[in-house]
Each structure stands twice: as C-alpha cells, then as structure tokens.
Design goal:
Layout lengths: L13 E3 L8 H8 L7 E2 L3 E2 H6 L2 H5 L8 E6 L3 H14 L3 E6 L4 H5 L10 H14 L4 E9 L5 H12 L5 E9 L6 H4 L7 H10 L5 E4 L5 H7 L5 E4 L1 H5 L7 H6 L8 H17 L4 H5 L12 H11 L7 H8 L7
Parallel strand pairs: 1-9, 2-4, 3-4, 4-5, 5-6, 6-7, 7-8, 8-9
C-alpha cells in the first residue's frame, strides 16, 4: 500500500461504499460480524433533511458500527456545514460529500454527479465543512459526467477540490451519464477505467486516493492497493459479504482466524432480537443477510426460506436459524 498521511483521522485500506436502500444501520451491524476495522458509510442523507428533519432518526447509530462515515448530499455550503457539525456531534468518524450519484432525483436537488461540472461549487462546500468540523472531509465522485470525461477534466476537478482541503477522494472508476441511463445502468454500462485512478494517484502522490467500482476479490483489492491508498467495495459487499471475513487479518493485521458464515449469523442474532423488541420487522433486517452463503451449497434454499417466511407476522430469529439448516455442515 502506498504511504499517504491524512491531516486528521485514519486512512482505511478498505471501505464499504454508501449505497441507497442498502447501507442502513441494520446492514452495518451485520457487516461488523465480518469486519471490525473496515470503514463503513451511511446511506446518503441530504443536508436539508438534517436541517429540517428528525435528526435522531436520520443520524442515530450504535457505537458498534464505527468506524463510520456520514455521507451528505447537497450544494449549499452553509447547510452542508450545519449537517457536518451535526454529524460530528453524533460521533461520526468522517464526513463525505456525494458527487457521484447520477439519479434524476439527485440531479433535481442539484447534488450528486452533476456537481462534477461545478468543481468550484464542490470546493466551496468542502471548505465550509472543513471549517465546521474537526473530522476528515472527503468526496466520492466519478471519473466524469456526460462528455466531460477526459482525464484532464477529473484532474482539474480533483486539484480544485483538494485546494479547499479535501482529505480523501473516493473515485468510482466510471463516468456517469446524467440522462439516458438509469442509476443501475450507470453502475455497469460505462466502462471501468481503473488505470486513470491509478494515474491520478501517481501524478498527485500527496493526495489520498481510493478506487471504487467492479472490485470483487481479495486478490483484486491487494493489486489495487499497490497503486492507490484505499479500495472501496460496493455491490459485492452486499451480494457476497463474506469477502470481508478475512479483511481484518489480511489488511489490518488483526490476529485470529476469520469467522465462519454460521458464526457471522450467530453474531447478528442478538441485535436482531433487540430490534424485534423495538418493533423492527424481521424482514427489514434479514434482507441484508441473503448473500451470506453466496457460492455455498444450499444458498438458494437459504434465500428462498427467508423470502417466504421473514415477512410473516411474528417472524423472529427462528426463521434465520431454520433457513441455515439447509446449509451443509462447514458451509
């Protein structure tokens, strides 16, 4: 791994990308049964929602989820500074600005990937947040948007935002089309250009650069870490979370063997029971576990049992345990 220091906070070699409808607090607790060290993110929360909404509902989390970054959306420097300050008060470890989401809803709010066309606006937002908090302030962005996708364009964007004090750039190694592709298609259709993220790090060695997009194995993670400072894993963390079972030992130097898949499930059950007592339906928590046995015999039956039973009234931990009975010993 390259040697880059951040002015404040810790540089994590591996993180789990913020994903709407996925990286809620239930999923984050589930992941902590696999990795204690990897940096996790909230779903994106708009600065205006924090200003006007129920902060405890939006920002509350349990300490076991840390280290945890708060991802914000917006373009108003004052509102973002207020939201960042609220995040610091709640105990988050990092504030991240979303400059990568290409959805129509995000564009209409003038935040997300469309802001790549306005690097000065992003710089003003970063500067305001840096002034408001003592936490690392980072930016997640694409390699470009629409026709503005030359390497020189992303380099100019990064240089402008770095001058405002951005602590790390998490670069999704694809461009985004603001029209013509759905958010799902924007995650797969534009080709990956990892080499441009590697070049960005090589040409700006003083900056902390993290690569995101299409990375699915520990071998790929290790390979990227020879060229950049960090690797951010997105959909694979949800579809095959057991990838993270060896991260703490192999990349953070933590002792001990990785947990088995069944041990991961058992670690999650006390939290499930606690949340059930608070009125949270089982399906809201069990949906995050469907990929736990990916690639293992019986995985299809595991998913099917959860899909057929987790939503039923009164469903509890016994549904998860019964679903796991279909997995052969050692799976």
């Amino acid at each position: 791994m390259t040697s880059t220091s951040i002015r404040r906070g810790r540089l994590h070699p591996v993180s789990v990308a913020p994903m709407m409808d996925h990286t809620d607090r239930h999923f984050r607790v589930f992941l902590r049964g696999l990795t204690r060290e990897s940096l996790l993110y909230t779903e994106m929360i708009t600065a205006l929602a924090i200003r006007h909404g129920d902060r405890e509902h939006l920002l509350g989390f349990s300490q076991e989820e840390r280290p945890l970054a708060l991802q914000l959306g917006g373009d108003d420097p004052q509102a973002l500074a207020e939201a960042a300050r609220a995040g610091q008060e709640y105990g988050y470890d990092e504030i991240n600005l979303n400059v990568g989401c290409p959805s129509d809803r995000v564009q209409h709010g003038r935040f997300g990937a469309c802001l790549m066309k306005e690097p000065a606006a992003v710089a003003r937002a970063v500067a305001a947040m840096r002034q408001a908090v003592d936490l690392p302030v980072t930016v997640k962005h694409r390699l470009g948007v629409d026709e503005q996708d030359r390497y020189e364009d992303v380099l100019a964007f990064v240089d402008t935002v770095a001058a405002a004090g951005c602590d790390r750039f998490a670069v999704h190694a694809r461009k985004a089309w603001l029209s013509g592709l759905s958010p799902k298609e924007n995650r797969t259709v534009p080709p990956l250009r990892w080499e441009e993220v590697h070049r960005l790090k090589a040409e700006r060695p003083q900056l902390a650069i993290e690569v995101n997009g299409g990375i699915t194995t520990m071998a790929e993670i290790r390979s990227h870490l020879t060229k950049v400072d960090g690797v951010m894993i997105g959909r694979t963390a949800y579809e095959d979370p057991y990838l993270f079972a060896t991260v703490d030992r192999e990349l953070y130097g933590q002792p001990g063997p990785p947990p088995s898949r069944r041990e991961v499930l058992e670690r999650y059950l006390p939290y499930v029971e606690q949340q059930l007592r608070r009125g949270v339906p089982l399906a809201r928590m069990s949906r995050h576990t469907t990929g736990l046995f990916a690639g293992v015999p019986g995985a299809r039956a595991w998913k099917r049992h959860l899909a057929e039973n987790a939503h039923k009234p009164g469903a509890g931990p016994e549904v998860l345990l019964a679903a796991a009975e279909g997995i052969p010993a050692g799976g």
